[in-house]
């Protein structure tokens, strides 16, 4: 299954299979069950996750006590609370499995060491962060520019498989409205 | 003045002065006057900007015809519309000088060439995008979690010099409310 990680790396940078064999021991592979937490609020965030199979989400509990999902990660996506991870701080987020998942895990100290020992991976991570940043900039534009209905329709248009795959109450949590409101919009769309 | 760019690079990666001399010709240095546009909506976004002196902002015109500022860049910050830049697409944004500014400019094709010829800079740009992404993730949390007043007070707390430096109507545009509403909050804060 680590083969899919190798394929992902070589999309962005040249890396021999023999070098990949030296890279892999920096990671642990874990299996998590649906709804299992990989990170909880208040924990020092020391780990970075790469999804081999399944789906994770990141959320925080807002001041009304409601879970607000801010990101999902499916196969070939990285996920962590990046500020807390980089600075070794307690996180304000939870990371939880949406489905039974298989995940590669690396600690911050090991990621730093990995990059020093295998500088070819600087190019890989540069692409990962560059694309994540670009997606996040677009997301900020949508948050300013779109009504809740428009945000939902945009998501259906851009990520149809994702909207099918993830439970509707989590789509609602990602878009910042109640599951009831989402049902209403979906019914309006059908009628 | 390019010296400040060299200092910024060497905060993140080792680079000899002699190698920096080979890097610098990949960039043009331009001077822009306050309110001058560096990028306008509909243009193919081919350039990445690094602020040596001054301040730029990025904004789009929302469906009410109002300028919505999404990012600022002061000294040592990079700025572009990253999705359009990476894919060579027309942009939905404007980039404009907030103050008279001095800016380093690099074209996408040259940035790609630069990274292939000087792979040490992969590490530099990896840090740049990693930090930009982390800041942007935090921004998304604030957009979900904070009322407009809270967002303003948070900005005053985290970036006091920035709030002093940038005109108030642009702070209002960044936070997504009218200048009048910002005046009201500031008056409440004083009283």
UniProtKB/TrEMBL annotation, chains A, B:
Gene3D superfamilies in alphabetical order: Jelly Rolls
SUPFAM superfamilies, per database record: cAMP-binding domain-like (SSF51206)
Signal sequence segment: none
Coiled coil: none
Membrane-crossing residue ranges in chain numbering: none
CDD domains: CAP_ED
Protein name: Cyclic nucleotide-binding domain-containing protein
């Amino acid at each position: 299954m680590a083969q899919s990680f190798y394929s992902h790396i070589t999309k962005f940078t040249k890396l021999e299979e023999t070098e990949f064999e030296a890279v892999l021991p920096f990671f642990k592979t874990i299996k998590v069950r649906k709804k299992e937490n990989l990170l909880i609020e208040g924990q020092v965030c020391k780990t970075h996750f790469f999804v081999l199979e399944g789906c994770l989400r990141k959320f925080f509990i807002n001041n009304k006590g409601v879970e607000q999902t801010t990101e999902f990660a499916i196969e070939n996506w990285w996920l962590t609370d990046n500020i807390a991870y980089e600075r070794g701080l307690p996180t304000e987020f939870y990371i939880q499995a949406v489905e039974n998942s298989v995940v590669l895990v690396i600690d911050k100290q090991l990621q730093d060491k990995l990059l020093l020992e295998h500088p070819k991976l600087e190019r890989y991570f540069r692409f990962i962060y560059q694309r994540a940043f670009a997606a996040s900039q677009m997301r900020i534009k949508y948050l300013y520019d779109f009504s809740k209905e428009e945000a939902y329709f945009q998501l259906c248009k851009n990520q149809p498989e994702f909207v099918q795959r993830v439970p509707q109450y989590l789509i609602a949590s990602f878009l910042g409205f109640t599951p009831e409101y989402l049902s209403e919009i979906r019914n309006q769309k059908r009628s």
